[in-house]
Write a structure and sequence with these properties.
six-stranded mixed β-sheet; globular; alpha/beta; Rossmann fold; 2 domains
Length: 239
C-alpha cells in the first residue's frame, strides 16, 4: 500500500478494494498469455482505472483544436504520456503536437504536510521509461525530461531550444505542494487560452498541498470535474 488509510475521500471506495483484489487473484489463476492481457485489456482492468484513462481521453479531446503541446508533470512509468502520445498519433497525425514528460525519477519526497505518504513511491527508472517509449515507437512524439520541478523549470525554459514551448494540455500528477506550485507558476503562463490544466488530486486528503497551491495561485479559476471519473479529479479551461 502506497498510502495509509484516511477517513474522507480515501474511504469512498474502501469497500470495493477487497473485491477488486480478489478479482485480480482469480484472473491470475486463469492462465492467460501475455498477448491476451494486452489485446483484451478491458477483461482485466478495474472500472476506476478505466474511468481514469477515459477522463484523460476526454481532456485530450477538449484540447484537440487548441494549439500547443502536452505536458505531464510526474511521469512514473509513463502510462499517461504514452496514452497522450498514442492519441496524438491517432487524432493529430499531421500536427506538430508533442508530449513532454517531466520527472526527477527519485519518487515521492513528502514534506511534513504529506507526512502520511511513503517516501520513494511512484519511482521508475528513467531508462525503463525511455525503453517503453522506444518499444512503442514513439520517440518522435514523447520527450522525457529529468529535472527537479521545485527549482529547475526556469533554467529549462530559459534555454534557446525550450524557450518557444507552448502547451494546450498540462496534467499535474504530483500532489506535493512545492511541485504543484512551481508547475502552476511555470505552465499557466505557457498554457494557450482554451487549453486545459488537469489536476489529479484536487480536494483530496492524501494530497493537501495540491489544493493549497490552487487556492494561493489560481483562486479565481473555475475548476470542473469529469462526472464519471475519480482521478484526475478536476480540470480548468484557461480563458
Amino acid at each position: 500500500m502506497k498510502h495509509q488509510e484516511m477517513k474522507y475521500e480515501y474511504m469512498k471506495y474502501h469497500k470495493d478494494r477487497p473485491l477488486y483484489e480478489a478479482g485480480i487473484k482469480e484472473m491470475k489463476e486463469l492462465g492467460f498469455s501475455d498477448e491476451e492481457y494486452f489485446n483484451h485489456f478491458p477483461c482485466f482492468i478495474g472500472h476506476l482505472t478505466l474511468s481514469r484513462y477515459l477522463a484523460l481521453y476526454e481532456a485530450f479531446k477538449l484540447s484537440l483544436n487548441v494549439a500547443g503541446h502536452i505536458a505531464e508533470i510526474g511521469v512514473d512509468k509513463g502510462s499517461v504520456s504514452l496514452l497522450f502520445a498514442k492519441l496524438v498519433k491517432i487524432f493529430e497525425p499531421n500536427s506538430l503536437t508533442l508530449v513532454h514528460g517531466f520527472d526527477w525519477f527519485q519518487g515521492t519526497k513528502p514534506t511534513s504536510e504529506e507526512s502520511f505518504l511513503k517516501a520513494g513511491t511512484y519511482k521508475t527508472d528513467e531508462l525503463v521509461v525511455n525503453r517503453l517509449v522506444k518499444a512503442n515507437g514513439l520517440e518522435n512524439i514523447i520527450h522525457i525530461h529529468n529535472l527537479d520541478a521545485t527549482k529547475d523549470f526556469p533554467d529549462f525554459f530559459n534555454t534557446p531550444e525550450n524557450a518557444h514551448l507552448q502547451f494546450k494540455l498540462v496534467f499535474l500528477d504530483c500532489g506535493i505542494y512545492q511541485v504543484v506550485a512551481e508547475s502552476i507558476k511555470t505552465f499557466w503562463n505557457r498554457l494557450t487560452p482554451g487549453g486545459l490544466l488537469v489536476l489529479d488530486h484536487y480536494s483530496f486528503e492524501q494530497a493537501p498541498g495540491e489544493i493549497r497551491a490552487i487556492r494561493e495561485l489560481l483562486p479565481h479559476v473555475k475548476f470542473k470535474q469529469f462526472p464519471f471519473g475519480w482521478m484526475p479529479a478536476a480540470y480548468a479551461i484557461k480563458d
